[in-house]
Amino acid sequence: MIELKTIEEINRMRKAGTVVGKLLSFLAARVAPGMRTKALDEAAVKFIRANGAEPAFLGYRGFPATICVSVNEEVVHGIPGDRIINDGDIVSIDAGAKVDGFYADAAITVAVGRIPSPVHRLVEVTKRSLEKAIDMAQPDNRLSDISYTVQDTVEGEGLSVVRDFVGHGIGRAIHEDPPIPNFGPPDRGPRLKAGMVLAIEPMVTMGGPEVEILADGWTAVTKDRSLAAHFEHTVAITKEGPEVLTALG
Predict the structure, then answer these.
(1) Distance CA 196, CA 3 (A)
(2) Residue 249: pLDDT above 90?
(3) Inside any domain, residue 80
(4) Is the pTM of this model over 0.90?
(5) Which pLDDT tens digit goes with each residue over 76-119?
(6) What is the full DSSP assignment across 70-137?
(7) Structural domain includes residue 249
(8) Per the structure, how many domains does the chain have?
(9) pLDDT at 19
(10) For residue 180, what are the domain limits?
């Protein structure tokens, strides 16, 4: 069942989204060659708490960190630790926060220094697929219109959509119905209504779509070790159209 949020509840989610958007901008400006990924996590937990929010991921199903930091071939759920970030890497940061009982969730992929043109295209196409998907989050469209738009944008550029992980509803819980695949035909599934809040999150690779989970039980990497990018926003559907609650600050 897809829960519709009231205007007051969306206002509370907007507060959480503002923290997440500002956090991602804060962290993106600090990613640099030579730093360990755990330094981003240490900065994140301080930032979230200083802004009157609670970390959404820390302890969730046993996850041991405040944010996910996934580098290069790591698609999602990377555990921050001793991995050193190098010039030419791409770093995906996935963050969530809780304010007044409601969650927001977003992700960005950051280029470190100079990256080759094909890698830059990977990042830009992934970001563009999210932007186009958000444009489809209109009342009376169908849920799969979002999914189809991501797949069409990505595969039209010769890249692959990860199928093992999907977007999701969000609100009082970090993951709610409905699941939102990044692939599939258009004009399927429930009609979108004002009050729905969705975390839309394309995950895209330069190689095949298959992933595998590392021994830590969390980090998902591309099976062929090709590079991957990840972008996400928490989006409220209103009568006027989509509103991004996690806009970068």
Answers:
(1) 7
(2) no
(3) yes
(4) yes
(5) 999 999 999 999 999 999 999 999 999 999 999 999 999 999 99
(6) EETTEEE-PPPSSPBP-TT-EEEEEEEEEETTEEEEEEEEEE-S---HHHHHHHHHHHHHHHHHHHT-
(7) no
(8) 1
(9) 98
(10) 7-244
